[in-house]
Design goal:
alpha+beta; Beta-Lactamase; Arc Repressor Mutant, subunit A; 4 domains; 5-stranded antiparallel sheet; disordered N terminus; disordered C terminus
Length: about 500
């Protein structure tokens, strides 16, 4: 156990998760619960103590488990999953819920995933399937359209890892190989593999023109068996472009598909042309920026959101040259007059000719996160001041590297300069000979040998020769039956004379 002041950040973050109405949990790759917050009691009628290290996800979800299983499998493959569903709470109330599953990577391997469920009933009343609870598709987007879009999305996800094969695609999307090949070509104007190669060449052409990579490097990145095969594909792609052989109608269909996906996306995203006029916008964007009952398609973002012209126009021009921009915090005034901290992701989309056709802009309101960060900073400052005033410092001793660390409060107590580097010899020199040294050595010996924590009071002599009564608390940390670290706190408990101050 460490008493480093930074641990208070984790305490504050923990308190936030415990007092939110959203359900938060962590499931390992075997679908065993390893963490759950208090909200699980309202959602599923089971407390964290009853879940953690005991419950399988299927036990918690019940009949919903089979419905969610495709999403669970995909998150365990390393893909973020976001979907809406109707869930009946333990109280019996039916809620529209947004579910987010985020993979947990440890050294490039998925060890589990984080689960977040939040009630979005006040935000939408979308129709749902009575049997599955999953949101129904809009009337203008047929089930077959959605299937083909999902196939195209899978191909995009595998551009750098290799073609997944027709068999794998048909199994993944629950469609026969013959139907998949026939419908895909009819919709996109190309065979599945030709479409996949075309997407790869679009990326390659962009990277080569922008001089990010040469042809040999792109061949390796795109998993070609040798550079000559890549060169042949790339040459064919350039010939198609120069001859204008790209099928116009499928390209228009693709743009319409993208627009449909954006409009139905559960995130705040908008698509613009090169003049920064709206082409498509998600319902999340409409809600986020309070644009209900306003026809914004074809209008400039600078007209709809005037504050963006001053703060974002240069960024937009930069990205319209083919650059990607990401920003973790930009304060922007919305239409309702409020100012919010926004996270921005701006990236260009390209026309069939390879020119930048416009931008896609994804924003996320992180005002609450910024508020928590600000509160954490304030809390850290208060804690640091409190530690200084209470004359309590933190220390650690690493048994693997044989190094020690004392914070500046301890150095102030022992009247040492801030640049002083402590070691075990310095500690024994500062400890008063006799009873204090013997007590300290015994406490250290028991901690290292038996893992015993200690809480002792000793006399120490400061670097300036002043006597101090010191309380030292320590906690050992063991690994493979061997102590690897000691950490704890040091407090000055020297009685203060009523006729003199301490000097610090």
């Amino acid at each position: 156990m460490s008493f480093d002041l930074n641990s208070n950040f984790f305490e504050i973050a923990f308190n936030v998760t415990e007092h939110t109405e959203a359900m938060l949990a962590y499931w390992d790759k075997n679908l065993i619960c390893r963490y759950a917050n208090k909200a699980t009691a309202d959602w599923f009628g089971i407390t964290p103590d009853q879940m953690v290290n005991k419950s399988h996800l299927s036990e918690i979800l019940g009949t919903l488990f089979d419905v969610q299983l495709p999403y669970i499998n995909r998150v365990l493959e390393g893909k973020i999953q976001v979907f809406d569903q109707v869930i009946h709470w333990y109280s019996g109330k039916a809620k529209n819920v947004r579910v987010t599953y985020h993979p947990d990577y440890v050294e490039a391997e998925v060890k589990g995933f984080y689960a977040h469920m939040t009630d979005i009933s006040p935000l939408n009343n979308k129709p749902v399937d009575d049997e599955t609870g999953i949101e129904k598709l809009p009337e203008f987007l047929t089930q077959n359209d959605q299937l083909l879009e999902n196939v195209a999305k899978t191909l995009n996800e595998n551009l750098f890892t290799g073609f997944p094969s027709i068999t794998a695609l048909s199994k993944k999307h629950f469609v026969s190989e013959s139907k998949l090949k026939r419908d895909f070509k009819q919709s996109f104007g190309r065979t599945i593999f030709s479409y996949y190669r075309y997407l790869q060449m679009e990326i390659a052409d962009r990277y080569i023109r922008e001089k990010r990579c040469n042809k040999n490097q792109m061949a390796v990145m795109l998993n070609f068996s040798n550079p000559s095969n890549f060169s042949a594909c790339y040459h064919k792609y350039l010939e198609e472009k120069s001859a204008g052989l790209e099928p116009d109608q499928p390209q228009k269909q693709n743009i319409n598909h993208y627009k449909t996906l954006i409009e139905e996306a559960p995130i705040t995203i908008a698509m613009f042309n090169a003049e920064m006029q709206f082409i498509a916008v998600s319902k999340g964007w409409i809600t986020e920026y309070n644009l209900q009952n306003i026809n914004i398609i074809g209008k400039s973002i600078y007209e709809i959101l005037p504050d963006t012209k001053k703060k974002c126009e240069k960024l937009h021009l930069h990205c319209l040259k083919g650059n990607i921009y990401q920003c973790d915090g930009l304060l922007l005034k919305k239409n309702n007059g409020t100012r919010s901290w926004l996270k921005w992701n701006i990236y260009p989309w390209f026309s069939p000719s390879g020119e930048v056709g416009g931008l896609c802009v994804h924003t996320e309101d992180i005002s609450k996160i910024k508020a928590i960060e600000k509160e954490n900073e304030r809390a850290a400052k208060l804690l640091k001041r409190a530690a200084t005033f209470s004359k309590m410092g933190t220390w650690t001793r690493d048994l693997l590297t044989h190094t020690m660390q004392w914070d500046n409060v301890i150095k102030s107590i022992l009247e040492l300069p801030e640049y002083f580097v402590p070691d075990i010899k310095a500690l024994w020199m500062l400890l008063k000979q006799g009873k204090s040294q013997k007590l300290s050595k015994k406490a250290l010996k028991d901690a290292l040998r038996y893992g015993s924590p200690f809480d002792i009071e000793v006399d120490m002599i400061t670097a300036k020769g002043n006597s101090r009564r010191i309380r030292i608390i320590g906690y050992p940390e063991f690994q493979n039956n061997k102590c690897k670290k000691l950490s704890g706190i040091l407090l000055d408990i020297t009685p203060i004379s009523p006729f003199k101050t301490t000097g610090y």
